[in-house]
């Protein structure tokens, strides 16, 4: 018997806790299944001073004491209304937390809950008006009252990408309604080097190799959850590599028009040179000008007071950038600046593209 069952942590009991009460029953069941239980006795130290909170902590039974210094302490009781929410804000890192009585905590992965909420709330609630039924369109059985665990696991993996988390909520439902599911076979070429870009792809299952040149040189292996093909769609350049399936699998693909409308446009913001100069004159946040041209281009026509990272090196240089800075991509980069903005937006940087 699992601890969830032993302590009656069920869909019915957890539906009274926030924000779990916003989940459909099918997603709530999955969140509960993937949660964990911590049982404690009176006198147990649950959190030492300086602790880090890696989960959402729900106090389902018992009382705990939160002590800060010699003269400051507070009791948190599972029977009080405040315990219908995660107690994280009640147990700050500068406090020691000790159990007054026996009881138990329920721990929920915040990323899993966030993804479950995003998908649950972005899907139509009315079964009769759910996503259109199309043999090629990916639609979750959960919208029809059933639960497809394989689909849910893929969706939670997919929604983990900042690429999707940054999207306006209104885009999510329409976006996933436009994806087509495609069964593929080992050896099948999905993208051919030097072809025009037509689709953006997500790898649901199976694996694929990325190869360049002739004879072909393998440069990477793609696993489930990977996505590819966006650069040719952003910049209207030809494909820079081929992608070939290494085993049978399944892809989700999004056509160019839908990609531009639902994925690219919401992520890339354009500002004029005049707007940039006005902002620079009275900045409300840290700003930096970023040039993503090649080194030879930059050295030929250098830009003073400008950070330079060639586009080819941008992904490997993300750790060197500061997320508290708003980056403005120079217009000299042309459509390459659009690609750079797309990459930076995927990784939750604040970014603008300068355009006259």
UniProtKB/TrEMBL annotation:
Domain Cyclic nucleotide-binding: 19-117, 163-263
Domain named Rhodanese: residues: 283-354
Stretches of the chain forming a coiled coil according to its record: none
SMART domains referenced in this protein's UniProt entry, alphabetically: cNMP
CDD domains from the UniProt entry: CAP_ED
Pfam families the UniProt entry points to: cNMP_binding
PANTHER family (UniProt xref): CAMP-DEPENDENT PROTEIN KINASE REGULATORY CHAIN, CYCLIC NUCLEOTIDE-BINDING DOMAIN-CONTAINING PROTEIN
Name under which the protein is recorded: Cyclic nucleotide-binding domain-containing protein
Organism for this UniProt entry: Alkalimarinus alittae
Top-level taxonomy: Bacteria, Pseudomonadati, Pseudomonadota, Gammaproteobacteria, Alteromonadales
């Amino acid at each position: 018997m699992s601890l969830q069952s032993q302590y009656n942590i069920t869909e019915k009991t957890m539906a009274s806790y926030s924000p779990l009460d916003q989940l459909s029953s099918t997603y709530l069941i999955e969140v509960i299944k993937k949660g964990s239980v911590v049982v404690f006795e009176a006198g147990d130290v649950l959190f030492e001073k300086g602790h880090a909170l890696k989960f959402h902590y729900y106090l389902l039974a018992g009382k705990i004491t939160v002590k800060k210094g010699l003269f400051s302490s507070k009791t948190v009781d599972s029977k009080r209304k405040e315990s219908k929410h995660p107690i994280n804000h009640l147990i700050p890192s500068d406090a020691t937390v000790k159990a007054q009585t026996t009881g138990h905590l329920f721990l929920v992965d915040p990323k899993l809950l966030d993804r479950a909420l995003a998908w649950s709330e972005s899907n139509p609630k009315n079964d009769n008006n759910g996503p259109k039924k199309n043999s090629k369109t990916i639609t979750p059985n959960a919208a029809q009252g059933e639960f497809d665990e394989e689909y849910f696991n893929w969706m939670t993996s997919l929604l983990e990408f900042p690429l999707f988390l940054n999207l306006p909520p209104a885009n999510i439902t329409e976006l996933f309604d436009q994806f087509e599911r495609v069964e593929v076979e080992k050896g099948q070429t999905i993208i051919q080097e030097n072809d025009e870009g037509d689709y953006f792809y997500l790898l649901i299952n199976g694996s694929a190799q990325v190869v360049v040149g002739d004879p072909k040189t393998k440069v990477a292996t793609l696993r489930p959850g990977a996505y590819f093909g966006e650069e040719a769609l952003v910049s209207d350049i030809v494909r820079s590599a081929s992608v070939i399936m290494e085993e049978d699998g399944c892809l989700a693909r999004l056509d160019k028009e839908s990609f531009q409308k639902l994925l690219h446009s919401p992520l890339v913001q354009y500002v004029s040179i005049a707007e940039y100069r006005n902002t620079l004159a009275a900045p409300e946040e840290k700003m930096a000008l970023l040039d993503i041209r090649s080194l030879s281009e930059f050295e030929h026509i250098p830009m003073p007071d400008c950070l330079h990272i060639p586009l080819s090196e941008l992904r490997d240089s993300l750790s060197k950038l500061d997320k508290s800075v708003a980056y403005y991509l120079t217009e000299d980069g042309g459509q390459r600046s659009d690609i750079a903005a797309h990459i930076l937006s995927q990784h939750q940087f604040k970014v603008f593209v300068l355009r006259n």
